[in-house]
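dude i think i finally got it to work??
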Amino acid sequence: MFRRKPTVKKKIEDYQFKGNLAEDIRIIKELFGHSSDLIIRYIGNDDYNPIAVLYIDSLIERESIEEYVISELNDNYKQDQNNPINVKEINFSTIKKEDTSSIKESITFMLQGYSLVLIDKQTNGIALDTAGGERRQVSESEVETVVRGPRETFNETLQTNIGLIRRRLHTHKLKVHEMNIGELSQTTVAMIGIDDVVKPEMFEEVKKRLEKIEIDGILDSLYLEEIIEDPNGYTPFPTIFNSERPDRISAGLLEGRIAILSDGTPGALLVPATIGLFLTSNEDYYQRYDFASFLKLLRGFSFLLSIVLPGFYVALLTYHQEMIPTPLLIALTGQREGVPFAIAIEVLLMEITFEILREAGLRLPKTIGAAVSIVGGLVLGQAAVEAGLVGQATVIAVSLTAISSFTTPSYNLAISARLLRFALIILSAVLGAFGLIFGLIFIYIHLTTLRSFGVPYLTPIVPFHKDNWGDLFIRTPWWTMRERPNEVAGENKDRMSDSNDNNHLNRRQKK
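look at this
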């Protein structure tokens, strides 16, 4: 028996323009699988059509096609076949006009919303920018809300997002480097940094990591985040910051960080990231420094509370009752009469129940999601206490932990706290306070080993930079923060002249 040799399928790189309009269109149709949204418009008379316009119907703006492409071609069309139209001499009114020399390049332009103009007896084409279609408008953030400050957020359009940053940073030093990532998706990814402010070696390192990505598609910035982050092994802590607010990303760029934007993602990544970046809210810089400092301390304490409180409660009631004042111990013991579970099981059940309610609230429609979470928590907590399954103090401890976790500005860091909370509960149930302290020491050691593009995660705590502590646990006045963070700033480290500080001191002395 003879086996049939497998047919070798041509790659798109193997196809070239042949100079025959009908043959070139046939090849493009076959490459697109005769898709119904591939539109072909011919320019010419009934007997001879020397020009064709090809585009993807779902990616273009029809008014631009009709007004700037079809209308111009019809006005310049010549009936004489011996003296055909020279498309290069036509001044199209589109934003961009690109010459294409291969079928692969032409298809890439079409998939970006360009219209492709092909001319008979010519082995190249012209791509005209007519991108459009339905896109979400710039709206107010529903996740990173503020009382005072800008309301704009990123949407899914890359050029709109870059424009939102440029409207805040009116400088020619803002450089944008774009690349396409994903063999099938060809997602446009943009790197943004400020010359002199960003470290050149850091910019090149981010660029190199992005260019090394080989994947079939990028549908969200998380794909990039997991691929390009430092090889720290497994860590529950996020090492790349993300935000959907242009003002937050612009503030990071002014510090010397690098923004990474992905087409189709309503947000941006910011690298390198340190622990202080995740504990800082947008509103810290829109309020007076004294009130902002109080809120930063409150959030830091709440974050620590959201990790430690359940484990501390389990260790205290399981192994260290002598540390509890006698009246409080009697009250807690009375509440637990008839409860069939141990303290650790009781807390774990309540924590898991609350996580289920939180997840259900996220998946339900917005109009009823919040109501289900609140009412469900109240009803289940009260019913569990009345049924004798849990004690009242346990409900209070778990509820306070949940409320504290909501104060964490970064959602990714709040998720890390939720995971670590369960580990500390188990350690506290096994070893008591020793297990809790051992767990905290292990977390601290783990944090000291983390890096974000080579920058230590706990900077400026470890390594110690006293000049940057004014914007870590508290926020000092703007006139005292004259320099950018040491760990990320490039050649230009000054963001405020010393004269501002002197002027402020002189005004105080006059008073």
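The first helix runs from residue 21 to 31.
im so relieved honestly
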